[in-house]
């Protein structure tokens, strides 16, 4: 992308991507890196005219070259997209790091590889999932065959978050395209770069113009709301806050559009005294502090069986104090900044609330002293509390920062009841070496995914999603195909 010199560095222009080409918008907005607060890009904000163009292009491609492309050829193109991401790995990595501030080690091992893997997995899945066929008796004895065909839903609106920008965008785009749909994507205004870069890869891979479109902007009153309300959008998939999901669901009701939501969480971990202690500490460190706590599947409530409670809190605190905060390119960096100054204010408000409610701040609880230009970034300390009641807002509301509250428990039933005492139901972790207990507790936890003696270990064929206020529907494997296709029954009288 072309750039303008500003502040001694190069500020890139990030365009919308409409009908196979970069497209301007109605205005420009600044994208600041959370590492030091400097402006790294100007982003073209889409207005109604750009949104209309993108949806119209998607509709044409659906009826034209993409809709007529045989399944095998469509899947081959998606494999080329995966290869294209890998060929431009360093560009995707640099853009992702600049937008999010996350450590290079995290983005290079998870975000970019998963972005490519999503296209391969779903291209292969759609070719290998069978539909139904029944032999049906008829009064004349000749019979009939009833079989099902998968057909694309149509134009899909994809709204993706800022915490795992490429990974979660492609988690939706890949199955949508594999099923023959076309998409209009609205990435977070905080992380615009990789979505537009993916448009270039699509073009290079031979994806027809109009199949993949990107509109940049904000939510209410901007590109996000326009996309959800557009009458020619047939389905909407969204990952983000529960409050935003509620607004999108209301908009989707006009026209009776299908929705798939992965929403907020206040995820628990239950640590039993018979756990592998070192593994439980290492796993909880990851689930609490990975990506500066900005992971929808992360742990914010930790329940520890009383005999090991004090030891566990001490070990977790020592490990948290050992996290090195620093620039993403430093190999020793263990945690980066929050996504923005606005989000930091939200997280720090919870830090202050915990203090005012009388929490014991085991470690952290404030803003770290960062050297030089890093002082302008959105940094917070990794934080651990004890001593708060279960009904404290700190223990009820999603914070989405590098923090957790640790509380003791005495019985298995108590731990399960407290873990389930939330309006959310996205993920949970259980740490135990008792196999029977692992099965028993996992079955009773109200969550879409339960990890036992692990965290963030994913098989992309499995169902993924939340219960209660944490979402609607499931993605992954055949479950993604159920959302991105309509099943048509064909009855043939013999």
CA radius of gyration: 24 Å
Structural class, by secondary structure, is alpha/beta
Helices, by number, come to: 16
What's the number of domains?
2
Average pLDDT, all residues = 96
CATH superfamily of the largest domain: Aldehyde Dehydrogenase, Chain A, domain 1
Largest sheet properties: 7 strands, mixed
User: What would you call the shape?
Assistant: globular
Using the 3D structure, state the CATH architecture of the largest domain: 3-Layer(aba) Sandwich
CATH topology of the largest domain: Aldehyde Dehydrogenase, Chain A, domain 1
Identify low-pLDDT runs.
Answer: 1-8
Percent of residues in helical segments? Answer: 25-40%
Q: Which strand order do you get reading across the main beta sheet?
A: 16-17-18-15-14-20-21
The tally of strands reads 24
What percentage of amino acids are in beta strands? 15-25%
| Main CATH class of the largest domain | Alpha Beta
Distance between the termini: 59 Å
């Amino acid at each position: 992308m072309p750039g303008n010199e500003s502040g001694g560095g190069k500020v890139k222009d990030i365009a919308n991507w409409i009908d196979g080409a970069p497209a301007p918008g109605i205005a420009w907005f600044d994208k600041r890196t959370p590492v030091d607060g400097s402006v790294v890009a100007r982003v073209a904000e889409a207005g109604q005219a750009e949104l209309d163009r993108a949806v119209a292009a998607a509709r044409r491609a659906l009826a034209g070259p993409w809709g007529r492309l045989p399944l095998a050829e469509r899947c081959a193109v998606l494999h080329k997209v995966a290869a294209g991401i890998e060929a431009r790995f360093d560009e995707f990595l640099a853009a992702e790091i600049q937008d999010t501030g996350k450590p290079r080690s995290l983005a290079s091992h998870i975000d970019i590889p998963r972005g490519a893997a999503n296209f391969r997995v779903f291209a292969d899945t759609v070719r290998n999932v069978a539909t139904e066929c029944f032999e049906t008796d008829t009064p004349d004895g000749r019979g009939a065959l009833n079989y099902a065909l998968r057909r694309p839903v149509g134009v899909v609106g994809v709204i993706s978050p800022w915490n795992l920008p490429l990974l979660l965008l492609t988690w939706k785009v890949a199955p949508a395209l594999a099923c023959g749909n076309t998409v209009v994507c609205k990435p977070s205004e905080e992380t615009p770069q990789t979505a537009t870069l993916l448009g270039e890869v699509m073009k290079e891979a031979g994806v027809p113009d109009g199949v993949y479109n990107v509109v940049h902007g904000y939510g209410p009153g901007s590109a996000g709301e326009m996309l959800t309300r557009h009458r020619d959008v047939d389905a909407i998939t969204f990952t983000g806050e529960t409050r935003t999901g509620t607004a999108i669901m209301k908009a989707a009701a006009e026209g009776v559009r299908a929705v798939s939501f992965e929403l907020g969480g206040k995820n628990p971990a239950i640590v039993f005294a018979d756990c592998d202690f070192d593994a439980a500490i290492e796993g909880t460190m990851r689930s609490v502090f990975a990506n500066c706590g900005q992971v929808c599947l992360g742990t914010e409530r930790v329940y520890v069986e009383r005999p090991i409670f004090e030891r566990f809190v001490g070990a977790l605190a020592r490990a948290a104090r050992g996290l090195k905060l620093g620039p993403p390119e430093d190999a020793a960096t263990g945690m980066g900044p929050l996504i923005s100054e606005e989000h930091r204010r939200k997280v720090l408000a919870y830090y202050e609330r915990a203090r005012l409610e009388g929490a014991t701040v085991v470690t952290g609880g404030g803003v770290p002293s960062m050297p030089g230009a890093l002082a302008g970034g959105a940094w917070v300390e990794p934080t651990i509390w004890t001593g708060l009641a279960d009904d404290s807002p700190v223990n009820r509301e999603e914070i989405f920062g590098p923090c957790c509250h640790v509380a003791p428990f005495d019985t298995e039933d108590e731990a399960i009841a407290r873990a389930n005492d939330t309006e959310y139901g996205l993920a949970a972790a259980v740490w135990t070496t008792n196999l029977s207990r692992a099965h028993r507790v996992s079955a009773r936890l109200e969550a879409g995914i339960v990890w036992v003696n692990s965290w963030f270990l994913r098989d992309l064929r499995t169902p993924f999603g939340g219960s209660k206020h944490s979402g609607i529907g499931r993605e992954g494997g055949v479950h993604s195909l159920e959302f991105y296709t309509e099943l048509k029954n064909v009855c043939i009288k013999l």
